Amino acid sequence: MSSSAPVSAYRILAKIRAGERLSDSELAAVSSGAADGSWSDAQLAAFLMGAAIRELDPSETAALTEAMLDSGERWNLGRDVVGLGDKHSTGGVGDKVSLVLAPLLAALDRPIVMLTGRGLGHTGGTADKLECIPDLDLALDRKRSLELLEGQGMAIGIATTAIAPADRRLYALRDQTATVDSLPLIVASILSKKLATGASGIVFDVKMGEGAFLTDPELARALASRLTGTASDMGTASSAVLTDMSQPLGDWVGHNAEVREVLDCLEGDGPAETMKVTTELAVELSALTGERLDAASLDRTITSGAARQRFEQWAIAQGARAGWWRELELPLAPTEVVIEAPADGFLSRVATRDLGLLLAEAGGGRIQAADTIDAGIALKYEARIGQRLEAGQEIARLYLRSPDEALAARARDCFTLSREPEEPPRLVAETVRAADSG
């Protein structure tokens, strides 16, 4: 370590402790210190705490994002692929929209790239779901992404470690320093990876409600505003759709089960909720990258079989065996636990986050990053908030690897009934665009 590195870090930390703004060069020093190891974990932790308490302003957030982006490779795929789109979700229980959205748009000659990740905690990762497809190769670099975009109009995978290495280190420390929910740090983390692809436009699916990362609707709106505003400031068109996560999205939760649901969606038999969110995001992203598509054209692409065919062909191009969908075996775990309404009433609340966590504890997700996943663990969601239920009527069905009465009891406690009907939450609450971000 050079002798100047600790002094530089000290000055920056002293400034943020005093509540002073940090210059672009100082934020660049933080990012480079995270990427090259010249800043210690203690120094980075102090920066994160200061940034969270004082809260970086919009220009500081953009400068930190730019610096983190510059800490690694920038693929700039948009230079070679006209109208390239990207999509990011803040994560939710049963959220498999990315896997429906991408082939749907690609089949309409709207190219899309998504660098995704693995799940941790109550939400499942897109990469984990895709690994249910035998032999699918999720390793992507710029060259491979371009090949897939040129041949299939879509590329989904996990980026090389060369993208935003500064974020990798800062992200790991945020959990240890209680700064996970700092909005500027969230924005910098998301955009430093998303902007690396160089897409022309990005649509954000920002979840709110019981099972969302940010449960408070106002915080979710603030995040949507900051994401779109910062992306716009950095030259990328973007918008955010605020969607409800008060209950699982669609009929199924669990990796094998969700891949089955994706195939159903692409055959026109998917749950209405999953398709509504997919359609809203597809229409919004199309407007960012070219001419706005309408819901009717999206529906025709599904019913014609073109979206399903594109999904099948893309998977083969990305390593899956020919005819993989015919060989696909996605068994559910063998122990079924039926969750029934204990009395007549209306479903009024679902502890969605708790449901996601208990599925992870059962093996269907990760509590720790090193955990392995049992893709057969699942939940079938049979009811919806606001629905009237009779005593004994099935609310949900849990699929476990072996009997677990304690887990089953916790699952039953996740559903609350009331005597009076509850107003169902709006699935799509609003759209936030950069011009509205103030």
Give a quick summary of the entry.
The protein has 438 residues and is an alpha/beta fold.
Can you put this structure into words, describing what you see?
The chain has 438 residues and is of the alpha/beta class. It has three domains: 4-54, no CATH class; 77-162 and 170-326 and 427-436, 3-Layer(aba) Sandwich (Pyrimidine Nucleoside Phosphorylase, Chain A, domain 2), CATH 3.40.1030; 335-418, Aldehyde Oxidoreductase, domain 3 (Alpha-Beta Complex), CATH 3.90.1170. 45% of the residues lie in helices and 16% in strands. It has 17 helices and 14 strands. The chain has helices spanning 4-17, 24-36, 41-54, 58-70, 97-106, 126-130, 142-152, 165-176, 183-194, 217-233, 255-266, 272-289, 295-303, 306-317, 324-327, 352-364, 405-412, and strands at 85-89, 112-115, 139-140, 154-159, 201-208, 237-244, 252-253, 335-340, 345-350, 378-381, 388-389, 394-400, 415-418, 428-433. A four-stranded mixed beta sheet has the order 1-5-6-14, sandwiched between helices. It has a four-stranded antiparallel beta sheet with strand order 7-10-12-8, sandwiched between helices. A three-stranded parallel beta sheet has the order 2-4-3, sandwiched between helices. Helix 7 links the parallel strand 3 and strand 4 (154-159). Helix 4 packs across helix 10 (217-233). The longest helix has 18 residues, at 272-289. The protein is globular and about 65 Å long. The protein starts with a helix and ends in a 5-residue tail after the last strand. 52% of the residues are buried. Mean pLDDT is 93; it is low at 1-6.
